[in-house]
Design brief:
Structural class of chain A: alpha/beta
Number of helices of chain A: 10
Oligomer: homodimer
Largest interface: A-B, 27 and 27 residues
Helix content of chain A: 25-40%
CATH superfamily of chain A: ComB-like
Strand content of chain A: 15-25%
Order of helices and strands of chain A: EEHEHEEHEHEHEHHHHHEE
Distance between the termini of chain A: 36 Å
Number of domains of chain A: 1
CATH topology of chain A: putative 2-phosphosulfolactate phosphatase
Strand order of the largest sheet of chain A: 1-8-2-7-9-10
Radius of gyration of chain A: 17 Å
């Protein structure tokens, strides 16, 4: 019996994205700590739009050209030459409303451009702060979905896998999920669901360590909090905009 | 404080192997359903050795040359042109003792040759049937380890991840594990440990489906049974031998 539901797959690393049929799917870019959580926050707080770019040099160039705010990190810290970083707390309403952010991050923007090059039917970004907006959108579109984890330099990470699992946990009745990575992600999420922060701490997840060493525990807590910036973030015409 | 224990990493797919320092590590090739389970069984039952080859054509050529038994599968069934398949039950003592098997499989032999090309310090094969031999060996060697999941055509699968998790569960006090994939694998294993078969059935793992559709439930049960063919399988000089 063939299912009439659209398919959902999880790509646990950018190095696995080519295994999936990107060109017929909506790709959800997942970079929980912290790129896609910050993107949701920036748009939720009223930014005009965000221009995601691959390199620090391009970020500086475009930032100058459009008088935008240059922001981004490499290895968890503000990249040299940029003015702002990758923390959601750097972008309160009173600062960011009406402005344009030019953003480059270690993993998230790279994956977004991979999905674009592979001809994704649609690209949105996903994070716990905007999980409900993501799920509502995917159900309404009723199209094949790839949950694309940005991972850490291609290495699978716990937090992006957890978010994929959280989405699957909510959407599994709406999609045909014949994908071991998705089942693995959901199993992980079910284990972690009672307290995501405690789970990350107890597992001593690698990027949890990295950010904790910079004293960024509050960033981590925020990035694991559902619907704290519940807005749809859609990539259209080179920009991330509020959907 | 730097740990004096050797590092352990898990590569969830051959497409991720390049991320790890293969050339300083022992690589454990994991292809639970069914290549590495069958390898353990064949050596446990007294075969002289196994020659793993990449292609069906090479399997036939070498099989003729050395008067070996040609065996292998593609997509879960005996490959056309070969005489035997990839089921552990095809190789009882009375048949296989003293013989040489020439073996090609969809995923396992490919990963083994990748580890070889990347200059692994040592290569062994791992499966539930020989899990204790694998763990004892890794502890005794006290060297960096990569648990290499053969996966399914580069897609992460549940059963190889489960085996990696089972090894980590036993060895975590002996190794320095700063690797989210390893933590993910162990979490999955802890969930599944009470009944591995039931877990695979309940999750409806993709290769579980494939083999079940061929009526191979007994193969699956056997391949998930610890220490049913508890022998160390070492790759040396182009051959898998009893260690």
């Amino acid at each position: 019996m063939k299912s009439s539901k659209p398919a959902l797959y999880t790509s646990l690393s950018p190095a696995l994205l080519h295994l999936y049929d990107v060109s017929s799917s909506i790709v959800v870019i997942i970079d929980v700590l912290r790129a896609t959580s910050t993107i949701a926050t920036v748009l939720f707080n009223g930014a005009k739009h965000i221009i995601p770019v691959d390199s620090v040099a391009e970020c500086i160039r475009i930032g100058k050209q459009i008088e935008g705010i240059t922001a981004g990190e490499r290895d968890g810290q503000i990249a040299p030459g940029l003015v702002y970083g990758n923390s959601p707390f750097e972008y309160p309403k009173e600062f960011i409303t009406g402005k344009t952010l030019v953003l480059t991050t270690t993993n998230g923007t790279k994956l977004l451009h991979m999905a674009l090059e592979r001809g994704a039917k649609g690209i949105i970004t996903g994070s716990f702060p905007n999980i409900s907006a993501v799920c509502d959108y995917l159900v309404a579109k009723n199209m094949p979905v790839i949950l694309g984890c940005a991972a850490w330099k291609d290495r699978v990470n716990i937090e992006d896998t957890l978010f994929a699992g959280a989405v699957i946990n909510r959407l599994k009745d709406h999609f045909d999920i014949n994908c071991d990575s998705s089942k693995l992600a959901e199993t992980l999420y079910n284990d972690a669901a009672p307290d995501l922060y405690e789970f990350m701490e107890q597992k001593y997840a690698s990027h949890f360590q990295r950010l904790s060493n910079y004293g960024l525990q509050n960033d981590i807590r925020y990035c694991l909090t559902p619907d704290s910036a519940n807005v749809l973030c859609v990539y259209e015409g080179g920009k991330l905009i509020k959907g």
